[in-house]
UniProtKB/TrEMBL annotation:
It comes from Alginatibacterium sediminis. Residues 1-123 form the HTH marR-type domain. SMART domains: HTH_MARR. The lineage of its organism: Bacteria, Pseudomonadati, Pseudomonadota, Gammaproteobacteria, Alteromonadales. Signal peptide: none annotated. The keyword Glycosyltransferase does not apply. GO terms for molecular function: DNA binding; DNA-binding transcription factor activity. Gene3D superfamilies: Winged helix-like DNA-binding domain superfamily/Winged helix DNA-binding domain (1.10.10.10). This is MarR family transcriptional regulator.
Amino acid sequence: MNIRSKMIAEVKRQQVEFSPLEHIAMSYILETGASSQQMLVESMNKDKAQIARIVARLLAQDLIIKQENPADKRAVLLELSAKGKTLLQRLDDVEMEILTDMLQGFTQSESQSLQLLLDRVSKNLG
């Protein structure tokens, strides 16, 4: 809960409307360099309508931009805007601060053990 509230506080400080799904979508776009809406549908396992709403909200806030797809002139690619990159970097910084606070007092070995255990829990959950 504490992590979520810190992330929400940072989003408010940045003066944007932003959900966890939008964060995931922007992270994927950053990771791939440019993405189509269909790529987001497949990677996030969400329906087209839900992805269309996410993209519309991100476009309305100038967090992403549409670019013509050079391989297919009928399609567009989504890229992060400068504002989107700044927001994502700030959220990553906050996340790193939270992780640092969470692991304070842990040895390197304990941190690694915790990571292994959490990875196993994540795999067990599917």
